Amino acid sequence: MRLLAPLWSRATYRGWVWAILGGALMMPFMMVGATGYNYVEPGSGFNGVIEPVVFAAVLPLVAAASLLLPDREVERTAARRLLGAEFASPADDDSWNSRWRTGCWFTLHAAIGGVLSGITLALVPFVGFLLYYGFRYALTGLDTAPSWYDGWFVEWGLLTGPLCLAALIALVAAVTAAMRAFAPKLLGQGASDRLAASRAEAARLAARNRIARELHDSVGHALSVVVVQSEAASRLIARDPAFAAEAMAAVGETARGALAELDAVIGALREDREGSRAPQRDLCDLSALVKESGVAVDLRLTGDPETLGRLASREIYRIVQEALTNVLRHADEPRAAVTVDIGPAEAAVTVTSPAARRPRGRPGGRGLIGMAERAEVLGGTAGTDWGAGEWTVRAAVPIDQKGRE
Predict the structure, then answer these.
(1) Domain check: are 202 and 149 in the same one?
(2) Are residues 180 and 89 in the same domain?
(3) How many whole angstroms separate alpha carbon 324 and alpha carbon 313?
């Protein structure tokens, strides 16, 4: 049954329409070729339209014209609707790569359509001829065929006629299937389009990862501060109302800052980017971070933060923020020593907190991975180590002397 499926498949007959359209495209070029052939063979008139040599001679003309005709979207629509081909259109439809590939498709469409249309025009009437004289032979016997064509092929016309028609349909089905498979290579995206799409997807994923890090660092830090400060306030509200009030004020300030950070990060995800987003924090906000962190911080900042670019300043701020968040979550005491040393060639960050034992948390936790990624983006390094009862986070970021933001 699979062999007979093309006989009643709609795809076959849609492909047949596609081929006939190709024949219609080929006909004006054949008329031009026949005119030229008339000079070679005087008196031939337009008989050149059926000459194979004329057909072969006009193909270069078809190829040249295909580069100039605005037919690219028309050919894609015909391939999708009539051949059932599935492909994405090139990003740059006017590029030379897109034009020559579509030109090749147009030339193939016209050539194949011209051949199949010619076969159809010749074979369908011939099938009618075979059926008619085959039927007459079956009724009246011999010598019913015209004198210019007789023989067993006509005598068995009731069988050979349908077989010829089935062969034509099978040919159309095979051509349709082949061109459907070939269409994406010439009408779809080329290697340059796929490379551009791959780069765009990589940039999109990098942006999403960055946004995820921003959310993890800013909101995660703020929530850790809120938890610690609110728990401290609940325990001391009866004994030390002033401290509890100060802690709750810190909770409110941290929550407001987190909301602002969250709004800035979510704003990057919105398609309509109307309005301005709040500026992201950098090393100039380090003192405010220390104050609201919930950690007793001994801060030492040496060097001039202005020598850093804005990107490096923001990333170093985030590294310190994540390190303090880890102190809140994992350190034996909420206490840390933070040193930021901005030298002529690099900025070094060291965050040390008490840890009697090596932390049992996952060595590849999201916070540590995020710090390493931030440093790596700037060409630096970040890592941790434990020793002498202390857990230390170290990061080093080179200072770009040529192109600061």
Answers:
(1) no
(2) yes
(3) 17
Q: In terms of residue numbers, what domain contains 294?
A: 282-405
For position 397, which CATH number holds?
3.30.565.10
Average pLDDT over every residue of 42-71 = 82
Closest CA to 250 of 278, 234, 274, 226: 226
Q: State the pLDDT at residue 1.
A: 56
**From residue 227, how far is each of 200, 231, 256, 335, 339 by CA, in Å?**
39, 6, 15, 16, 26
Q: What is the pLDDT of residues 106-137, one digit of tens each?
A: 999 999 999 999 999 999 999 998 888 888 88
Q: Give the count of beta carbons closer than 10 Å to the beta carbon of residue 87.
A: 15
- On whether both 152 and 235 belong to a single domain, the answer is no
Q: Are 114 and 120 in contact (CB under 8 A)?
A: no
CA dihedral 376, 358, 286, 233 (to 10 degrees): 140
Alpha-carbon span 324 to 326, nearest angstrom:
5
- As for how many domains the chain has, the answer is 3
- For helices 310-330 and 220-236, the axis angle rounded to 10 degrees is 40
Indicate the pTM of the whole model. 0.50
| DSSP code at position 304 | -
Q: Over the stretch 284-319, which tens digit does the pLDDT of each residue have?
A: 888 888 888 778 889 999 988 888 877 788 888 888
278 CB burial (10 A radius; 0-12, 13-18, 19+): exposed
Question: At which residue do the structure tokens 């210019």 appear?
Answer: 148
φ/ψ of 350, rounded to 5, equals -135, 125
Contact in structure between 82 and 15 (CB atoms under 8 Å) = yes
pLDDT exceeds cutoff 60 at 364: no
Instruction: Say yes or no: 227 and 179 in one domain.
Output: no
Q: How far apart are CA 331 and CA 37, in angstroms?
A: 93
Residues 6+ apart with CB under 8 A from 95: 192
Who contacts 360 (Cβ-Cβ below 8 Å, separation ≥6)? none
- Nearest 5°: the CA angle 215, 327, 281 is 40
